[in-house]
């Protein structure tokens, strides 16, 4: 079969992405979008930031363009660059430019990983100017009211060198995400994977145990995403202990003693 | 092919040498005769240990040799290993007499009782796993320690050296896990809140009451575990089925009452009279023992301290919060702090509300609340009154760093010191917690040393600066890249011409910005032993001054420490510049203040620096040691091969964590042990002290580019 090829700048999410609100984040995001204020999502990995963005894009009926930032990501990667085609140079828009032109939502994931020069293009977009300077074209693209800039960052495991600068963070409305409360997390795990409530609640308890280990050998506890993975394996017939080992324990650590300890925790629960 | 056994006379020679019979007069002939009867493999095993233990203490080795041949038939080699290492550890810790007693204990070793030891779960093997396991369970952080039996005082869980009740190793591990879980449950579900002293006074036979209570609580906690950790409970049931007799019938109704979800520690106390009257008292292999005295001591020390800590932290929290919304508050009314506890479904959670508004408690506050909750079963309101200004002396409430110098003025203590292991070459094993290390600051000396040095070496400084400036990586454009921000026009024109010509067209058509990212952390470890007195000390200090000047223009993060020591009890590291210090007048004065101290014990210093370096965020970590030759210590085995091997091991450990060690040695006649000692490290030997200032900086330049 052929995989569908989509143009993210045109594509609208058709089906409602499942999202359980933890607080008033949906309302806040909508307000910020209407008021044309950019949004900063904070929170540990796998707690639902990306899913939230998909959900909001669906809700607001805007295309969503996600850029996962890495340490080699430069301003040109976002804005665009000249390429050579058949002996001529052709300008190609980057994802940020495409999002601005299409009036979409541009979501820059793990923004602190990107090179510092990306901030130069983000800043004018993130304040009331809402313009994207395209230095190489000598142009300024004005963002339509529908355009929304969202960035995410995980304050937990960043080194101090990669902290978000005040001049950047103070342009955004910040939404803080954390692992959902036990009841909610149980519902999420059950809905996403189709396992029974009892299994989901045991998985959530297991996740809490791994989160207790954070700081004493584990960098980060099991995220909701990992729980959903484990739950899906269980729903497919894998035994809970094996599912926890493959989907959770192996994912959070390589340390042999820690692996064993996490396995002992999961085998204690199931 | 098995080698033929050694004859008695072949072994006698070695035994004479190892056991120093010229002075000790041990009758090695008998031992050799006994050993001659064994297979070569067994002989090698025992002789190997005699040699290794003899390097620690000859008497111990002799005693080992006398006992080991007879033990071979009834003890696993793995256990003999453990026994030998344990005896050496005891000797390290408590001296010869205690070690000899530990060695004798093996004589009472009853093979029957220990028939499963081969499959036993050894404390050293299970502690790292179960330590994390118990940390994952909610509640107060509990440390695992090795001791005589399984018990807890609410802050640590003590486990016996081996769990060996069952013939299968996995089962023994499960037994250990169940034991740990029950001890954890005692702190988590209120057993330790019982006032044991008052309870004992109520009964004629306090011992009997205590054992009955322990049984009741074990029943109750097992039921809690069945609820919280069903998987573990299944394992516990299986093991109990194999190990323990069935519950006496008279106890069944008690067990039923304790298994209800409403049962608390009070239920056990209510049932105690009934249980006291019963003749039989069930015991389980996983229940450990109750030590009310230890519980009371730990609790007494903890409660007031934690109350104070909590109140101080709350005051700080409040202050932080008040600063936040000062505008809204006129400050007249006292804020109301309230804590609600949610203890359900195995999780323990706290919510702090401040005048009704929820406040996220920071981790340390949450830990304190957990601990207080476990002690009282609730959070007493007086714990929630924020501490007033100056109400507590913080120095009494929070652990203070001990004055490192005080050790030598009064009684010896190891408080505030860090303990490091040391590699015992003879024993082929680490000596645990052997070096007592303290960090001290060098007393700054404000004189003209630094200025004079810079003046004297003005030409050299200029030269070094130039060289280091050239090293500074700068942002630059790299041409002809396959990817980049802009098109490389030269490359494009060339490529188009090539295409016209019918040749292949290059795809390297872009210009890319290369960014300078020099990400190096370096620690310098300078020999401050007495042997550096005079020229060498002077040269070291000069070298450090020049080095700092050069490093400042590179922007690398660096730290400088000096080391010295007298015996393992007094290992000292002198702070000259930490990674966080700026190169200021004080650091300059400390460099000037470096004075020769005592002896050259190097292992602990390398291990500590390894730890410090690994705590720094950097792509490349470099450890540079600067010393004047052979490790040496006062009246200690450190002199000679032991020190060489320990230093070698410490460097290996550093290299294993990804640090690049580099050693600079000042030694006039470059000795042959150096390549071995510096095995893992790169090194250079300087024979002229005067070269040092220039060389050190030059070497640094070379190893970091």
Please provide a written account of the structure:
The complex is a heterodimer of chains A (270) and B (705). Chain A is of the alpha/beta class and 270 residues long. Chain A folds into 2 domains: 25-176, Rossmann fold (3-Layer(aba) Sandwich), CATH 3.40.50.300; 182-269. Chain A has 11 helices and 9 strands. Chain A has a 5-stranded parallel sheet with strand order 2-5-8-1-9. Chain A has a two-stranded antiparallel ribbon with strand order 3-4. A two-stranded antiparallel sheet of chain A has the order 6-7. The mean pLDDT of chain A is 87. In chain B, a hairpin with a 3-residue loop joins strand 3 and strand 4. Chain B is globular and about 95 Å long. In chain B, helix 4 packs antiparallel against helix 5 (58-71). Chain B starts with 7 loop residues before the first helix and ends with a helix. In chain B, the strands form 5 sheets. Chain B has an 8-stranded mixed sheet, with helices on both faces. Chain B is an alpha/beta fold. Chain B is 48% helix and 16% strand. The model of chain B has no long low-confidence stretch (mean pLDDT 79). Chain A binds chain B through residues 74-76, 81-82, 84, 87, 89, 115, 136, 159-161, 182, 201, 205, 208-210, 212-213, 215-217, 241, 257-258, 260-262, 264-270, and chain B through 128-133, 135-138, 141, 177, 181, 229-232, 235, 345-347, 363, 485-487, 492, 496, 499, 509, 513, 515, 617.
């Amino acid at each position: 079969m052929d995989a569908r090829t989509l143009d993210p700048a045109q594509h609208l999410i058709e089906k409602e992405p499942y999202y359980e609100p933890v607080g008033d984040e949906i309302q806040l995001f909508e307000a910020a979008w209407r008021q044309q204020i950019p949004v900063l999502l904070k929170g540990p990995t796998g707690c639902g930031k990306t899913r939230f963005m998909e959900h909001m894009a669906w809700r607001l009926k805007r295309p969503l363009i996600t850029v996962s930032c890495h340490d080699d990501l430069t301003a040109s990667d976002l804005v665009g660059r000249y390429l050579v085609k058949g002996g001529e140079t052709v300008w190609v828009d980057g994802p940020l430019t495409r999002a601005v032109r299409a009036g979409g939502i541009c979501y820059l994931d793990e923004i602190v990983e990107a090179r510092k020069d990306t901030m130069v293009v983000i800043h004018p977009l993130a304040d009331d100017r809402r313009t994207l300077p395209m230095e190489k074209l000598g142009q300024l693209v004005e963002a339509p009211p529908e355009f929304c800039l969202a960035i995410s960052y995980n304050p937990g495991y960043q080194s101090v060198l990669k902290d978000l600068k005040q001049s950047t963070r103070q342009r955004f409305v910040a939404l803080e995400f954390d692992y959902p409360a036990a009841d909610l997390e149980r519902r999420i795990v059950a809905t996403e994977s189709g396992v029974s409530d009892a299994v989901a609640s045991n998985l959530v308890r297991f996740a809490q145990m791994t989160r207790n280990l954070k700081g004493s050998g584990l960098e980060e506890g099991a995220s909701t995403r990992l729980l959903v993975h484990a739950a899906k394996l269980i729903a497919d017939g894998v035994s809970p202990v094996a599912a926890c080992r493959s989907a959770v324990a192996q994912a959070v650590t390589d340390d042999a003693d820690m692996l064993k300890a996490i396995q002992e925790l999961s085998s204690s629960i199931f | 092919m098995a080698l033929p056994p050694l004859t008695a006379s072949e072994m006698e020679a070695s035994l004479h040498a190892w056991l120093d019979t010229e002075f000790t007069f041990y009758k090695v002939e008998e031992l050799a005769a006994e050993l001659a009867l064994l297979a070569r493999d067994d002989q090698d095993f025992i002789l190997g240990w005699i040699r290794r233990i003899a390097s620690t203490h000859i008497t111990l080795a002799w005693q080992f040799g006398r006992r080991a041949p007879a033990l071979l038939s009834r003890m696993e080699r793995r256990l003999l290993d453990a026994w030998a290492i344990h005896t050496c550890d005891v000797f390290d810790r408590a001296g010869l007499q205690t070690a000899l007693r530990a060695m004798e204990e093996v004589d009472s070793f009853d093979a029957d009782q220990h028939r499963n030891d081969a499959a036993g779960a050894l404390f050293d093997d299970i502690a790292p796993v179960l330590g994390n396991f118990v940390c994952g369970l909610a509640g107060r952080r509990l440390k695992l320690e090795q001791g005589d039996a399984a018990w807890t005082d609410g802050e640590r869980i003590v486990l016996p050296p081996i769990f060996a009740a069952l013939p299968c190793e996995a089962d023994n591990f499960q037994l250990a896990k169940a034991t740990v879980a029950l001890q954890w449950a005692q702190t988590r579900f209120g057993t330790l809140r019982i006032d044991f002293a008052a309870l004992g006074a109520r009964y004629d036979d306090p011992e009997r009451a205590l054992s009955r209570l322990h049984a009741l609580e074990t029943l109750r906690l097992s039921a809690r575990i069945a609820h919280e950790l069903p998987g573990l409970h299944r394992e516990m049931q299986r093991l109990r089925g194999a190990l323990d007799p069935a519950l006496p019938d008279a106890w069944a109704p008690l067990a039923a009452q304790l298994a209800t979800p409403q049962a608390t520690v009070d239920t056990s106390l209510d049932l105690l009279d009934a249980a006291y009257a019963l003749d039989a008292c069930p015991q389980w292999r996983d229940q450990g023992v109750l030590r009310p005295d230890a519980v009371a001591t730990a609790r007494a020390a903890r409660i007031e301290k934690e109350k104070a800590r909590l109140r101080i932290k709350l005051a700080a929290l409040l202050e932080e919060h008040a600063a936040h919304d000062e505008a809204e508050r006129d400050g007249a009314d006292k804020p109301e702090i309230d804590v609600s506890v949610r203890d359900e479904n195995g999780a323990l959670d706290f919510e702090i509300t401040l005048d009704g508004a929820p406040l996220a408690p920071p981790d340390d506050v949450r830990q304190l609340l957990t601990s207080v909750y476990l002690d009282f079963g609730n959070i007493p309101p007086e714990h929630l009154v924020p501490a007033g200004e100056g109400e507590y002396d913080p120095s009494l409430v929070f652990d203070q760093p001990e004055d490192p110098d005080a050790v030598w003025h009064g009684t010896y203590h190891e408080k505030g010191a860090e303990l490091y292991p040391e590699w015992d070459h003879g024993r082929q094993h680490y000596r645990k917690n052997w070096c007592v290390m303290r960090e001290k600051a060098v007393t700054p000396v404000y004189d003209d040393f630094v200025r004079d040095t810079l003046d004297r070496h003005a030409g050299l400084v200029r030269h070094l600066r130039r060289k280091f400036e050239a090293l500074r990586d700068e942002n630059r454009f790299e041409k002809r890249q396959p990817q980049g921000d802009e098109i490389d026009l030269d490359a494009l024109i060339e490529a188009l011409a090539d295409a016209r010509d019918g040749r292949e067209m290059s795809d390297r058509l872009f210009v890319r910005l290369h960014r300078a990212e020099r990400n190096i952390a370096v620690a310098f470890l300078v020999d401050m032993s007495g042997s550096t007195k005079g020229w060498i000390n002077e040269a070291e200090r000069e070298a450090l001054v020049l080095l700092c000047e050069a490093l400042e223009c590179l922007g690398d993060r660096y730290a400088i420490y000096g080391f010295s020591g007298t015996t393992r009890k007094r290992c000292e590291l002198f702070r000259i510049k930490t990674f966080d210090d700026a190169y200021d007048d004080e650091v300059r004065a400390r460099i000037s203040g470096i004075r020769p101290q005592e002896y050259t014990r190097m292992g602990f210093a390398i291990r500590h620096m390894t730890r410090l370096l690994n705590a720094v965020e950097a792509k490349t970590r470099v450890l540079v040691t600067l010393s004047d030759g052979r490790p040496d210590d006062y009246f200690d085995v450190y002199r000679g091969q032991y020190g060489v091997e320990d230093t070698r091991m410490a460097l290996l450990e550093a290299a294993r964590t990804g640090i690049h060690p580099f050693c600079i040695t000042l030694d006039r006649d470059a000795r042959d042990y150096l390549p071995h000692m510096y095995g893992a490290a790169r090194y250079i030997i300087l024979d002229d002290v005067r070269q040092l200032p220039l060389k050190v900086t030059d070497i640094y330049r070379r190893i970091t580019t």
